[in-house]
Records
---
Amino acid sequence: MTDMLAFKPVLLWSDALFFALLAVCAGGLWWARRQDHLRQAWLRVAASRSGMASAAVLAAFVLVALLDSLHYRPRLPDAKADAGQRAAYAVEVLSVLDLALRPLKANTEKTYSAPLATHLFAKETLEGGRDFPRLRHGGVHLRDDLARHESDVVGTALRGAALGLAAWCVFLLAAAGLRRRHPAVAWDAILAALLGLCLLAGPAAALAQGYHVLGTDKVGQDVLYLSLKSIRTGILIGTLTTLIMLPAAVLLGILAGYVGGWVDDLIQYLYTTLNSIPGVLLIAAAVLMMQVVIDTHPDWFATSAERADARLLALCAILGVTSWTGLCRLLRGETLKLREMEYVQAAQAFGVSRLAIMLRHILPNVMHIVLIAIVMDFSGLVLAEAVLSYVGIGVDPSTVSFGTMINTARMELAREPMVWWSLAAAFCFMFVLVLAANVFADVVRDAFDPRGSR
Amino acid sequence: MSSLLSVRDLTVVIGAGRPVDGVSFDIAPGETFALLGESGCGKSMTALGLMRLLPAAARIAGGAVSLDGRDLLALAEAEMRTVRGAGLGMIFQEPATSLNPVMTVGRQIGEALALRGGGGRARALELLAAVGIPDPARRLDEYPFQMSGGMKQRVMIAMALAGEPALLIADEPTTALDVTIQAQVLDLLKGLQRERGMAMLLITHDLGVVARMADRVGVMYAGQLVEVASRERFFAAPAHPYSRRLFAALPDAARRGGRLTTIPGSVPRLDAGFTGCRFAERCGEAMAVCRREAPPWREAGGQRMRCHLDIGGGAPLAPAVPAAAPAAEVEAAAALLEIDDLAVHFPIRRGFLKRAVGQVRAVDGISLRLAPGRTLALVGESGCGKTTAGKAILRLVAPTGGQVRLAGATLDATTIAAARASVQMVFQDPFGSLNPRLRIGAIIAEGMESLGIPGDHGARIAELLGQVGLAADMAGRYPHEFSGGQRQRIAIARALAVAPKLLVLDEPTSALDVSVQAQILNLLADLQKGLGLAYLFITHNIAVVDYLADEVAVMYLGRIVERGSAEQVLRKPHHPYTQALLAAVPRLDGRAGEQLLVPGDPPSPANPPAGCHFHPRCPRASETCRAAYPQAAEAAPGHEVRCWHAGP
């Protein structure tokens, strides 16, 4: 029995790519520390208050996505304790985040319920006539003492806030220690952002023990749980898409600008053509084709999670194919400017090869544009996913994403009284994520813009 | 003397720095006051401060500015707008960016006129005619891109005149223009000023322009005025140690073969706290008191300076070493570089299929000889093809005709790779010629690595840095840590790294201040002496040519119109263009001298005039000139001229 773990780790393709991306980012930061000009630029980012506050918020989102990317399959409880038999694992793939949020995931209601409610949202025919039935999980600890509901909510929230404050104090102490070693970093902004996060997360965590903090959706799933699960999808689409399109954009952009001639013509025709095909149609066609491929080869995937994951990656690839043209065009223009620089001509006078000139003289001098484009594109892609899923050509229906949340909630806006919480929750989470990414992108752009550097 | 503009203790701050620190001067009606100084000394900031058009980061921290008795600093912004234009007009350095490219010239002038009660098209026509634009009625409906640089600057002047300002502020009005055009514009400004009784604040770094234009001169250094004097006094006997060194750093024929006086170091950072004299660090005459106390103003005979020395009390600067007797002409030596009929034609492509419909004859058959260890100056105005010719020698642009031979071996697409170590190039812009992402060591090593030169590159880099006067430990730094002059030294070290025999120097000093230019010219002279390098020196600066060239070739519209030894070409020019070029150089003695103005602009090399290219602008032009291009004729042994009417 010793070789039989209580779970079996599962590495989905998107997990592997996400971890690789994080590793590359960490490695890149470590490398940038030793490059003088990059170090200076990142120090400018670190000294910016808005930059660091948004970075702290982004880090919280990335942490959630990271926890949601550690997948495993739990071992099924042995029906018969046969020693020789191999352990059976569940077909359902869970993540560490699911483990942490197990009560939220498991405690489903029958259908809609409002945030922090104790009863369902719609009346049903009960034994004593039509009434709002009690929830199976929300507020059950109150038993019949419903008068205590409000005071219980407020009390729990306050207890949670106190816990959040306590957690924040830990950060405060850590920051005080770090501040001495890195005085230039805007620690106060980081702490302010963390204080906000702690004061939101503390009460939410405390209330989630007994209530559905953001209500439940049509099939009774907890909306807070769905929102947290959507974060991974959004972040993956925002980052992996860029990763897929980056090599093509950089390579083709620099080639077109530096080599010129028929190469330039060819690349220009290519991206002009791609750009003139309506993006949504192209994506819709590709997604549908891919859906057919996936459906006809069920044997490729061991679990439904793998299937959904394949569809997510394919969506990233398609978005990447349609979105590299903008960066490519920017890089071509910049390269056209750089190739006339005198240092490039000096290198030509030494007979340096074209490839070496592109690598040594052009690429490092366009990297700031690449970096700015990555960060700016991120928010656009998160929003694009929501729009595509809303139209029905986005991620797999079984994948939780902001787009699918909005899609399922849209019909209920017409209901009277309105079911607003699904949409509001998706909106708020996405808004904060995109806003933080945009603010961070602005700060990065200012720090790396050569004209702004002193 | 009642003054029109009076500036008292004007101080401008940007953050902790003070680009203008307590500047005071007066300008009388109709007078021209020149603010002279190197880049970064605060002269433009002073002008913008007067107009209250400072950049967002800067603000006026103190002082008073009054124009005709009105305190400009106390005016509300709305009132100040009425002063701009009517009281103070301004023209800027770069005519190409000072005009809106999507509006016709007429509308832009009309805009300036509308603010002063209109006057409409007739008035705009009048203004364009006043600034000497031929056919103003047609030009009024043209866009800026249809005009040459000189013409755009005239339009700018017309716009400034629209408000009939009492004082015209001209911020480096001719720096971006060629010498012949500069002479036209300066003449125009002088004439307009005389006609209208307008006062002028002229901001420039060019002593020649000051000598030609100014009534009084103020010398700025590190945000302060250090000397104020009348033009005659200033040019006869500059008093401040800084002014005297500026004069001594100017290259000219009298200093040939000698070393130029340089000012060591560079202009101090303006956010440094100053206790003593700001120039003390770079002054050869600094005393202990100079570092301790800020110097007082001293005055003698209408000349004032801010210095601890008495006026006229400074030690005389070492006179330039008189030119060593010119070495006997070394004609015997085999030519290192021979160029025969070199041509670079760029096709003009039009239409969908990009068929060539014409050709820009950037370089149209030039022939040159250069002996080892000598300097050949290729002189001409912008657009004459001199830089293209230099690049064609290295095949940075592919020549379309002719031959280049280096030490007897023909350079073509196949042999150039082997010859790259023998001929190298130094570029004009020290800020664009070094990759900002590479360390100095990597920049210098690039050529050695690419050409596979064996040996210890690290030691060689240290040696090269020493040769160009930099410290060996600077190899680990990035270009942005260096000043313009230091960057140009690095660019020279990079070219020297592969031990070339010939350096093509493309305007290596035109982006540098006078004092730094002197350092670079001295360095080039030392390197030539030490390493026996030959220089092909491409420039438009006649003074520099006079200082260092052995031979001179004058280029006009892709062809060489006159060549010979420096003595022949510069002392006894035979071609009218050479004569005009020499006459257009502002003279330093302050006397007007005889002026030979060349009218008009250089024609386009895509559509050169028939016959002699110069005939539309030439005072000697005749029917023959319109019919055929002149053949080369020898005016003296080794002195070739291409002109039907050549003569002194």
---
Amino acid sequence: MKTKIKSVLETSSVTTFEDVCFMYQVPELKKEQKKLKPDAVAEVKYKGDHTGRLVIEAYGDLFSAIAANMLSDESPSLHKKKDALGEIANIICGNVVASLGRSEKGYKIGSPRSLKKEEWLKEKKTDKPFAEISLNFNEGRVDIKFFVDGEISVKEKKIDKSSDC
Amino acid sequence: MALNILVVDDSSVMRSIIIKTLKMTDLPLGDIWEAKNGQEGLRLLHEKWIDLALVDIHMPVMDGEEMIRHLRENQQYENLPVIVVSSESDPNKIEMMLRQGAMFIHKPFKPETLREVVIDMTGVNYEDKD
């Protein structure tokens, strides 16, 4: 299940960056772009048979580049930059929750929100993601983490297994 | 024939992306109107001449499902081409939209996908641009 979610997380993230931001991965980052702290973090919560959240962390100049590319605006406002990062999180989350198995009630994806530095640091210390990936771009790096609250139930695993057949 | 299009999404960023993608399709576009929920969308439909609506599902005040239901109950709009643009993955919800005569585009999407669906729904194409 973990491998499947990681694979869906990676595929949907790459496709989202390509189709929505017109940004394509590069194999490695330049040395000066390897920053330790993210410039911005956005979070989207989901609710259904499982609950959890998706967190996206933008490093280097990527935070600005995402909004600039999405909106064709050379100097987007901070508000627009945050909205753009949140939308990316929202789209990726919508694609990943589908791979958790069919939810009777369907999954409800919440509105994206920006995380403050202290919130991000606190969550980073306490929570371990179910799946995470990193993507490198010319402008910087993005880390995307998918969290599932509790454990994925045996019932869900069975549904998932039968749907694979 | 240039298409007058209504884009309904609560995210201004998403509306901008949809409009940007529409412009990349090379389809004949007329006026493009924006609304941030279904209620605003319905109001604009009453006020403007609109040929096609691109609608998100999850929105505050009035969501996409309710907006489409209102459209289908109104003789004036029962045949209005509607494309639902969403990252929704619930097959039941998608099926419900299709039953209402709407088409569905999953986010993220390429300009070519949007172009094909718009042509399917409206019958316009590049030759109509002039």
